[in-house]
């Protein structure tokens, strides 16, 4: 099991502050879809590389990101 | 799986009405987390300002009231004096606190009201369409200074923390920023101290937080955070301007 980043897409406004802050560069805005607000939501492209540092979640102004560490 | 980070229960489920990348959401989280960690959420009363954060009472999971423009410290003083067992904080932007509300904030500090003030300085009037504020930088373009703020016309930006620190009954004045995670962590510590001061009846505490307004500044959210560091921080130095409360 890897660490888990859960992004509530309906809360995301696509600001990309999470992707900019991620030290592993594994977050990006999903260009193939828009959410209910009309934004491209953030998505994790390589969950296996996640260290569960939660920098993305702390940076998210809309509290859309939940981070869990594999115990 | 151990939860490392999730949305604070100090926030309601209402979706934030702020623009993408706005720092208000980050500061809201920090205040909410602090209220939960200090176990004061149930006895806290928020005083919302006029501005983008006018609906802040919809987002904080505690009681709240909204004050007339700039008058949040006066309303908070009244609440605190009649409900001494409650924790009262104001959440104000620079258009509110540093402009129309300058009198109220100064007199509140002079009276030594035992309240906590969260002051968001993004150097612009966000809600009304990005007009020049007293805190707008020299040369900064806004909708009412399209060629940049000129010192000979509008003077220099107001330095609120520097102005408040010499007031005898102001106990704790600090300026922080939220442009990266290290500074977000520092801001949270400052907010926590400001609330602990109130819990321990030490008196007036204010945290000035440099914030981003990407829409008002006409930049992307990522570039907005860069502008906090490269544009705002040289003129608004971070640091503790006064701390007479000691350890909590």
What are the defining features of this structure?
A: 71 residues, alpha+beta, Alpha-Beta Plaits, two-stranded antiparallel ribbon, 14% helix, 21% strand, globular, B: 248 residues, Rossmann fold, seven-stranded mixed beta sheet, 10 helices, 8 strands, 38% helix
Task: Write up what this structure looks like.
- The complex is a heterodimer of chains A (71) and B (248).
- Chain A is built from 2 helices and 4 strands, in the order E-H-E-E-H-E.
- Chain A has a single domain, classed as Alpha-Beta Plaits.
- The radius of gyration of chain A is 11 Å and the shape is globular.
- Chain A is α+β, with helices and mostly antiparallel strands.
- Chain B contains 10 helices and 8 strands.
- In chain B, strands 3-2-4-5-7-6-8 form a 7-stranded mixed sheet, sandwiched between helices.
- Chain B is globular and about 50 Å long.
- The model of chain B has no long low-confidence stretch (mean pLDDT 97).
